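Readers of this paper often ask what the protein records in our data store actually look like. An entry from our holdings is shown next, in its original layout:
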Amino acid sequence: MAPRFGPARLVESVGGSEKIRVALLNQIVKMEFVSPEGLRLDGRRPMEMRQIRAEIGVVSKADGSAMFEMGNTKVIAAVYGPREVQNRSQQLNANALVRCEYTMANFSTGDRMRKPKGDRRSTEISLVIRQTMEECILTNLMPRSQIDIFVQVLQADGGTRSACINAATLALADAGIPMQDLVTSCSAGYLNNTPLLDLNYIEDSAGGADVTLGIMPKLDKVTLLQMDAKLSLDTFETVMQLAIEGCKAVADYIREILLENTKQLEYRWLLYVDGVLYGSKLGGRSHLVTVRPKWSCFVRN
């Protein structure tokens, strides 16, 4: 049975002498993250992504919002703006000011220790997300304005940065922020001499190389590249290409979500009264539709 959390945290949680901790760490390091049958600890193939799921408009008070899931990692993003700059000293005359705040819910991991707001890791990830999203937003079309991006991790199981970027992209699109292309992100790593796509927390904490990539797929541009540990050039190219394929798969899924959301704009909210549904499509003729008893529903004309 796979451990419930990574080696470093596991070793820290075990009492006893330093000798016992070192022995335990050595056993974990020797763990096979890919079985002889070619399966990972969660049953995936090395080049298989976790199941992804997204939803738009999850925060009613925000101008744009989205929830994005990658396996057991769940992230929510909310966008406010473009709006008037709150601090005039930060106003940019030629471009919009983009701000980002990243936080992790206290219940997002097995560690229940309360993390102070604005800790070093959160500040770093906030900066990474902001710089990544600035590359795609057409800030020159919204001078002297401000766009705020808030991202919170509700459940963490590896790949939180990638999930945050994907959620932020959907939230920006939901808010109608002009972008030159979608930004999508995915991670890849190298464990047991095997390239792995979309690492979960156990794999991410194993001490192997981990590459987090963000791209604009249509423009074929890289907006984010972070790597932990060292890799040979040949291995890096293999892992990099694997991450690119993951980003493209996420981009295809995000386009499907946006297309589905756009189609829903053709629907009009109709009120159910006495077993009959009255309404019409904007610019079209009226329709009378009989439906099963519900308080409300959407009807396509």
Remarks:
- Confidence is low (pLDDT under 50) at residues 1-11, 268-275, 279-301.
